Amino acid sequence: MKSFSDELKTGLVWLPALGMGYYPVPKNRPYDEGYFARYQKMADTPMGRELTQARIRLVARHYDGPLVDVGIGAGQFVGTRPNTRGYDVNPAGVAWLNQRGLWADLYADRYPALSMWDSLEHIDRPDVAVAKAEKWVFVSVPIFADGDAILTSRHFRKDEHIWYWTHNGLLRWFDGQGFDCIEHNTMETKLGREGIGSYAFRRRT
């Protein structure tokens, strides 16, 4: 049985006052050709296509300029929305972007807007990532009622998901990064994705 100190190092750490949790995902993560192919199959379904369009509409309600999609999945959003490039850590995703001339190095520059569909929770330093957005960050992310809800959720992925938030915890975290929440909706949950919140965050001037 793990001791308290072992659990702090290897288990989920949940801070109720922040509405935020951390799980120490191993460095060897499942981002490969098979991972990319699985997302291609999910994107090429009625729900997958509806999700892409819902995300495009969310962005369009607030912004219509150039955007970098961080964590492209199978490239469905990058390939559908005009004036969009992408960044990924999966070699298969990087190859897909480079073949189409759509690669953008997130950490080499700053960009007017970023989208992070199901990717914010995967990023080791999300604060560094969102700092690259000059104006907008658009996000879809699993949202939890509390720490106990994480342990029984399908979104508790010990090989992928590093960060966990409540709704208020996510708003608090983005506020700390200098962003205001301009829109929140549950459109992805209504389309069949359990427990997903969608957000538009605008940097304060």
UniProtKB/TrEMBL annotation:
InterPro entries xrefs: SAM-dependent_MTases_sf
Taxonomic superkingdom: Bacteria
A single MF term (Gene Ontology): methyltransferase activity
Transmembrane portions of the chain: none
Keyword set includes Transferase: yes
Gene Ontology biological process: methylation
Keywords: Methyltransferase, Transferase
Protein name: Class I SAM-dependent methyltransferase
